[in-house]
Design a protein that fits this description.
This protein is an alpha+beta fold and about 450 residues long. It is built from 8 helices and 23 strands.
Length: about 450
Amino acid sequence: MPMAWEMGRAVVGWLRAGAPLVVGFHGLRRGEKTNGLVNGPSGCWLVGAARLRSDSYDPAGSNVTGTLATCIVRIMTPQGSHVTRATCIVRIMTLKGSNITSMKNWILFFLISGLLFTGCGAPYSGPQMVNIRGLVFGTYYSITYYEDDGTAFDTEIDSLLQDFNSSLSFYDRESLLSRINRNEETRVDDYFEVVFRRSMEISGETDGAFDATVFPLVNAWGFGPSERADMTQAKVDSLLDVVGYEKIRLENGHVVKDDDRVQLDFNAIAKGYAADVVGKFLESKGVDVYLVEIGGDLVAKGVKPDESKWKIGLEIPAGEADAEQEWHYFVEIMDQGLATSGDYRQYYEEDGRRYSHTIDPETGYPADHNLMSVSVFAADAMSADAYATAIMVMGLDESISFVEDRDDLEAYFIFSDKEEGYGYYVSTGLKLMSREDI
């Protein structure tokens, strides 16, 4: 999945390269928050709330050996200083050759390299960057935006996402979706109606390659909450009887099923839709420059105060499911949604055969082709999310034609190649940048 990680930028837009700063938090358990005041240079302050994370990466050519943690900090300066307030995320790194090499449960030292507060001089009147991170839908989210006063809408966004989850979560037994799947409810809410109608549209456009009713097959093949079934042809055929987007519809705000066993699962479109929902919320607050990422699906709006677009890394396929993320190429985007789907993170091998979590709704079997990953660019994240899933069902040749025949989509394809390991295809209107271009 692509991460909204901005290359070559200071972690806070108002911090300039300078002397290193060491901030220590003691007695911090993994997953806990700690609040405190840490004196900074030039009379500036760090008011910190730190949350430990275990993710790490080592960009090629960098002087960073790994991320120790993610630290959510609020940066404040005295009244009338250059920076009055900013909320952001600091990625904590160790430098090559340093003696800080691992994260401890009980004592954590943050070494922040190359950060120096801007001088506490003339007031700054431009928009301030805010970054909010958290967990939702079993994954992480990162929301970055520019706002005149640096207002953090974290409480409102958290409430918004919880309402969204209460409607569309497949794993919350009390969600609206779960109750509809159990035939205990038929009336839908606004979230449900929007994602349902867009799902049906994309199912039609892709001839059923995207199908929100495919979950019984996904589950039976071992990619759901249940144990993997004995997948004989007879078993597959029986499940195909209850799969098919034509078997369910909306009438006057109610779900109507042709078969009560039909179930919906919006996991392949809901994260993108949630990113769009958060973006629209920010716009309602007067924010017109933002990047919202939920589990790798993202939507970007506007250009930043320095007139640059948002830079996004595109992950290369990993050899193992738990391998760290790596990026060779980047894109600049604005006013677009982006989602990536691939078969190299969720799969299992049995009797020398690899079984992908991407299930073909027509055959009932895991997709079997050489397309490893696709990143789709569309007008919104919801559409990009669903098209990416459909393309992983279609395979390389069919999906290249599908994208090139449309003016509203661009895509970056990665496919397996027996001679080279893997190859790339970039759609006509998409421009990639290498590390050297950044």
